[in-house]
Amino acid sequence: MLGRSLLATSLAAAAAQNASCSTVQADSLNPLVLKAEYAVLGRLLDRAKELEEDLAAGKPLPFKRIVKCNIGNPQALGQKPLTFVRQTLSLLMNPALLDMDLGYPADVIERAKAYIAAVPSVGAYSDSQGVKLVRTHVASFIAARDGFPASADDIYLTDGASAGVKALMTLLIRGAHDAVLVPVPQYPLYSATTTILNGTLAPYYLDESASWGVHLDELKRAHADAKAKGATARALVVINPGNPTGQSLPQAAIEAILAFAASEGLLVMADEVYQENVYGDAPKFTSLKKALARLRAKGEAGDADAADLASKAQVISFHSTSKGFIGECGLRGAISNCKTSRPRSEHRSRSLHPSPSAPTSSASLPQGSWSSRPRWENRRGRSTRRSARPSSIRCSRVRSESRRR
Ligand SMILES: Cc1ncc(COP(=O)(O)O)c(C=O)c1O
């Protein structure tokens, strides 16, 4: 078994050791969870941990250090946190610090005060859709990124993109007769969640020889395969920029994928958590939401086919504070942006949080700070008297961390 969930592995091991335990038996655990594979947390990582212990015990090995690249965990590899995010968070966690002279820039203090006014306390449950002010900041970020309006009402905050993806798939997959088209190679969140929910996986293969591109013929093949297995494809997962493949799809490809999904009645789950990580001469990142906005604009300009497709298209995109230059995996903040042709009230009434849970404020508020982070050009003359340092936007080390390194 490759990398099933850590909890499932531990419970299975405990159950195997303790046959007298009546509730937790290896064969009484949910078999779907045991079946789900999460290779990035599997045998390779276990081996790395063993080798780390060997190194710590002084065992001679032909290397001195293990660099874990099995999962995108930037700060574990030395990426520095953004001080704007961390300083704001520190004030939210302990508002008494506002009365002290910490030398924080004025915009950090201003932002912290705005969030403190918006939430009773970071220790309180937030709205299940997430703090409205944060969603407003996220919507402004998306509007500026795409050049089309975005609404806070379409934004859902979750504790990590994984939580948003799982919540959405839980809403979608009703059983084995529901299929999800998933790229291969892929980040295993999608295959593992489909397995756990007893859905049908419909893999489509990326073309390595075309920079890991997506071909419409391959999407059609996967769609038809699902049908042949007796399942109806309900969603199409697009990971762009790709993980582990690293490609950024050209705008034309994104538009073609959107048109295919709309014509087949598939919800597009656009995993865009790596949107800041586009390297080399790869095409500039294009969001699926932007592609949908362009399609709508064409329809409004009189293109009847575009209008028809736009009326059928459904896109939910995911972004996360775990990746990019914020890289705050430990804080697990994320956004889901729902763009559907359905009346807004319909999807709003079905929260992405099916159980009475809400995103943690400590994860959501940094999401807001990052989404509407200060820009260099806006910062001139904004420092407080005692903080002449030009900016907290730099990735300078937070003091305690620089001591640790
Ligand atoms: C493609 C992709 N999507 C989603 C995630 C999960 O992100 P989060 O930490 O926000 O749950 C990852 C994590 O590595 C990822 O690589």
Determine the mean pLDDT. Answer: 86
And the CATH topology of the largest domain? Aspartate Aminotransferase, domain 2
End-to-end span in angstroms?
A: 37 Å
Query: pLDDT under 50 segments (min length 5)?
Result: 343-350, 381-405
Global outline: globular
CATH superfamily of the largest domain: Type I PLP-dependent aspartate aminotransferase-like (Major domain)
The biggest beta sheet, please?
7 strands, mixed
Number of strands: 7
Q: Pairing-aware structural class of the strands and helices? A: alpha/beta
| Count of helix runs | 16
Bound molecules: pyridoxal-5'-phosphate
- Give, in order, the helices and strands: HHHHHHEHEHEHEHEHHEEHHHH
Output the CATH class name of the largest domain. Answer: Alpha Beta
Helix content: 40-55%
Taking all Cα atoms into account, the compactness measure Rg is 23 Å
The appropriate CATH architecture of the largest domain is: 3-Layer(aba) Sandwich
Count of folded domains? 3
Q: What percent of residues are in strands?
A: 5-15%
Strand order of the largest sheet: 1-7-6-5-4-2-3
